[in-house]
Structures are given as structure tokens and as C-alpha cells.
Amino acid sequence: MGAYILRRLALVIPTLLGILLVNFVLTQFVPGGPVEQAIARAQGGGDVFESFAGGNNDAGGMDALNTASDSKYIGARGLPPEFIAELEKEFGFDKPPVERFFRMVWNYMRFDFGESYFRSVSVVDLIIEKLPVSITLGLWSTLIAYMISIPLGIRKAVKDGSRFDTWTSGAIIAAYAIPGFLFAILLLVLFAGGSYWQIFPLRGLTSDNFETLSAWGKAKDYVWHITLPVLASTIGAFATLTLLTKNSFLDEIKKHYVMTARAKGLSERRVLYGHVFRNAMLIVIAGFPAVFIGVFFGGSLIIETIFSLDGLGRLGFEAAVARDYPIVFGTLFIFGLIGLVVGILSDLMYVLVDPRIDFERREG
Questions:
Q1: Same domain? 198 vs 339
Q2: Cα 105 off chain centre by
Q3: What total number of domains does the chain contain?
């Protein structure tokens, strides 16, 4: 098992390199890069895309356009070439793309993500500040989904075809059909002072007076703020996991070793949790990385935006809009690294649940 883990860890490096390479190449063709953003700000424009749409078409702007018609930047109207060259040097665009890429890779190997183009803050500091929010959403949502889905899925498998199985399946399918962002808005309207009850806070992860609260008060305040975002993040994963658990248990219950165990007089609980559980849970555990990463990637952006949570997903989205490439690539690197590490942890959980699994023998 040790050799297998080492091989998996060795694959992390080329995988991250591929992620960075693909996204680096794409950014070379995306209009409105950081230089264009800086030019738009220097000219008093709030958005670089106004230049693409033909903004600032006053008489002075037209004269300036004629003086800078040979510039490769659409928004460079009347700005001296020295200023453009200084911007390119500041953002590192005075060097060839290949050199910029390999320099970025070398820095990332040392976890040096550079500094934000427009915030003048270290990207590492920003990620450390925002990451706990996204991790909190991902972990709590995944754990709650598993805590509900596994017992419910087992119950549905045991009661397969009963009235309980029918109405719970209807509720699960309805929950799965509701988009996460729509459910989040519904929770806000119902329970955050939208039109009905003001039970939970509208935004943020903690209250303004959080630091002055006692330890118990901090715990209550934290749970109070995290309840609605976690519920909104959990709904999709909860539905999928429940049906996956049920079907996995149904497949195992019909096998001969279960009938043999029952024929020996073992109780139903002993059969389910002593024999069926270990085999049925393998496929459920295999889905853990997908569930966690699904919530962490997809849910973090939507849920953080709706509930005004200052997390990594929202940071990456705002950086992509502003073309703040150090933050964009830094968040991509962290997202990819977490996903790969969680995949390795999933394999370790396989062995923990069923020690008979030997990844090294299977690969051999």
C-alpha cells in the first residue's frame, strides 16, 4: 500500500502541471487581460469591456485613438508607449509566454503564488484568509449528507417497495430536481427575513461581535450563521447519496452469503451491519471525493455569493472577472491539489472499510 500511495503522490505533480498549462494557454487568448484592466482604470473606465463596446467615444477620445491606433491594446487611447511598457513590465507581460509559464511553475513548486495585481496583497495570504470558509461549507455539507443518506438509504433498502420507500423516494427526487441556488434563495426568503421569518442571519459567517462572545456563544453564533448555507449545499448531494446507498444495499442483500447468514439464525441487524455494510459501503465511500469536491467547487461559488460569504470560490470568480491572474491560478492550484489529495484519502478509506482490497496487487 505504501508503494501505491507514493505512486499516486507522484502523479499529483504532472496533473497539477497539466491544469496550470491548459488554463495558462487559455488566458493568452482571453480578451481584457490585466494590462487592459489597468488601462481602463487609468482612463477612468470602470470596466475594460466598455472599450470593446466602443465606450468613451468623445472628441478627445477619437483624437487619442488616432495617436495610438497601432497599439495592440484596444483601450490604449492616447496613452504614451512608455506607460504601456511599464504596465507590461509590472504584470510580467514583457517576457515571452513560455518563460512566464515556467517561472510560474517554479514559483508554485515552492508555494509562492506571487501578489495580486490589483489588491497589492500576497495571494497566499488571501487564500489562507478565504480557504476556511470554503472548507467549512464543503466538510459540513458532505458530513451531514453522509450522516443522513446512509441510515436513510439502508432503511429504504430494507423497506424496499413499502409506502415509506415510495414517499421518501418522491421527496428525494424532488429535492434533487431543485437547483442549489434556487433552494438557497428560497431559504433566504423564508427564514432570513425575506418575506416571512427572521430566524437566521442574511449574510456572513459570524456576527460583528463574534470576538467578544464566550466560547459557547461563539459556537452558537457559528452554527446560527452556517445553517442555511450548509442546507443549501447539502440538498443535491443528499439525494444522490441516499439512492446510491439504497441500491448498493439492495444488490448485496440479494447475494447468497446474506441468505446463508440469515439461515444460521443471525439477527437482521447483525446481517446488515456485520456482513452487508462492509461490502455495500465501498461504492458509497468511493463517491466521497466526488461529493466533497462537487460541493467545494460548484457549491462554493454559488452559495458564497448568495449568502455573502467571503470564501475561496467567490475570490476566484471575482479574480477571473478582474483578470487578476495570480489569484486565478493560485485558486486553481489549491482546488486541484485538494481534489487530488481527497482522491488518495478515498483509496485509504477503501482499505480501512475492507482490508481485503490490495491496490498494489491489482496494479501488478
A1: yes
A2: 22
A3: 2
